[in-house]
Specification:
Layout: H1 2-46, H2 49-53, E1 58-63, E2 68-71, H3 73-78, H4 90-93, H5 97-106, E3 113-118, E4 126-135, E5 141-150, H6 152-189, H7 196-225, E6 234-237, H8 238-256, E7 259-262, E8 269-272, H9 274-291, E9 295-302, E10 306-313, H10 320-323, H11 335-341, H12 347-357, E11 361-366, E12 372-379
Parallel strand pairs: 7-9
Antiparallel strand pairs: 1-2, 1-5, 3-4, 4-5, 6-8, 9-10, 10-12, 11-12
Helix pairs in contact: 1-6, 6-7, 7-12, 8-9, 9-12
Length: 390
């Protein structure tokens, strides 16, 4: 059973590593192009054609009016162009409005921009476009460089991974339910709680429950990543929601000697999915009980444009290097302690996806010996957000 989990992790790591390397190479090339443009304008940038010509990425250079000055062979192959598109606009050459919109944005913005889109063909190809503006030293816009990367294979691998995870998890559900049913029956029939049989059965039940929690978290995360979870948005009284979360965990906190506090003084309302926000807060407070110190406190503040929900504990804190990776799947600060506490390693990743689904973000502030503060930021929309955003 652990072999399946290792396979899932390895497949995910390979996909992530490949994407990181591709993005790194594109960023370096675009950075070089941007520097060249600043030094000598578009003519010098186009002079990099020798480098661009041999790149596997599709490269396109446009002038200040958006007309194509240079396109390498990879670009022509990517868009099935039979002739050189020089002199044409992007819409005339490839009719991809996302690429044209990217060029228009770069006329007024200087930083590297990125866009992903699907080509309108029968092959369902996915592309990523990275663009950078070429400007003179005085800031005058001279053109744009776009770099296109075919993401189709990576998207298919990612879909395959998600399907694999979901299918394996579903297949494990049934035998686990049967095992748990038999164990519960045998435990009920065991009269002596100190007997060896009872102790063995209790261990089987404990590990069966851990696997059940892991499977449920994997399925939840898979649905988040595939866009299979929508939102049921409504106005939520944050104080009441936090009370509900803390009430559900008071027994667990009592056994650990941890005090739970709701420090949301003023009445705050959040336009969000109450079930998903409850899930995120529950994961954070539960972690605070398991790994924190004597108190877990939930607070919130608003600046009018967003609400910052904070779950803070007075525990041992988190090293700086771990803070950068804390929301990654299966990442654990202390692996031995996490296994002892029964964590799945997916709770914080689910928290991150909940906030991102609402258009927000998650971060942690911590240092060794200073406790940890997890911040969930939710925007205050003027109108309902897109509930299908994954």
């Amino acid at each position: 059973m652990s072999g399946w989990i290792v396979s899932i992790i390895l497949l995910g790591c390979l996909v992530g590593l490949h994407l990181f390397w591709q993005n790194r190479c594109r960023s370096i090339a675009l950075g070089q192009a941007e520097a060249t443009g600043r030094e000598a304008g578009l003519a010098k940038a186009v002079g990099m054609a020798g480098m661009f010509a041999n790149m596997p990425e599709g490269v396109l250079v446009t002038d200040a009016d958006g007309r194509i000055e240079f396109a390498n062979q990879a670009f022509c192959r990517l868009f099935d162009l039979q002739e050189n598109p020089s002199g044409k606009t992007v819409m005339e050459a490839i009719r991809i409005h996302q690429a044209n919109d990217l060029i228009e944005r770069l006329k007024v913005e200087s930083s590297i921009k990125q866009e992903e889109f699907m080509l309108p063909d029968l092959e369902q190809r996915f592309l990523q476009a990275n663009g950078v503006a070429i400007r003179e030293k005085d800031g005058v816009h001279r053109g744009t460089i776009l770099m296109f990367h075919d993401l189709t294979r990576m998207k298919r691998l990612e879909n395959l991974r998600q399907e694999f995870v979901a299918n394996v998890s579903h297949e494990l559900r049934t035998p686990l339910s049967i095992i748990k049913g038999y164990v519960e029956t045998l435990l009920d029939a065991e009269e002596d709680p100190e007997s060896m049989n009872h102790r063995f059965l209790a261990k089987i039940e404990n590990h069966s429950n851990r696997l059940t929690f892991l499977i449920e978290d994997i399925l939840t995360l898979s649905r988040f990543e595939s866009g299979g979870i929508g939102l049921e948005l409504r106005d939520i009284d944050l104080g009441q929601l936090v009370d509900s979360v803390l009430d559900s965990l008071r027994e667990m906190a009592g056994k650990k000697g941890v005090r739970l506090e709701n420090d949301i003084g003023e009445k705050l309302s959040l336009f969000a999915d109450s079930q998903r926000v409850f899930q995120a807060l529950n994961n954070l407070v539960e972690n605070g009980i398991k790994y924190g110190g004597e108190c877990v406190c939930v607070s919130a503040k608003s600046d009018g444009s967003e609400i910052d929900l904070c779950v803070a504990d007075d525990g041992p804190g988190i090293p700086a290097e771990a803070c950068e990776r804390i929301f990654e799947r299966f990442y654990r600060v202390d692996k031995a302690r996490s296994r002892e506490m029964g964590g799945t390693g997916l709770g914080l990743s689910i928290v991150k996806h909940v906030t991102q689904l609402h258009g927000g973000s998650a971060r942690v502030e911590s240092a060794p010996g200073e406790g940890a503060s997890f911040h969930l930021t939710f925007p205050i929309p003027n109108k309902p957000v897109d509930t299908e955003t994954g």
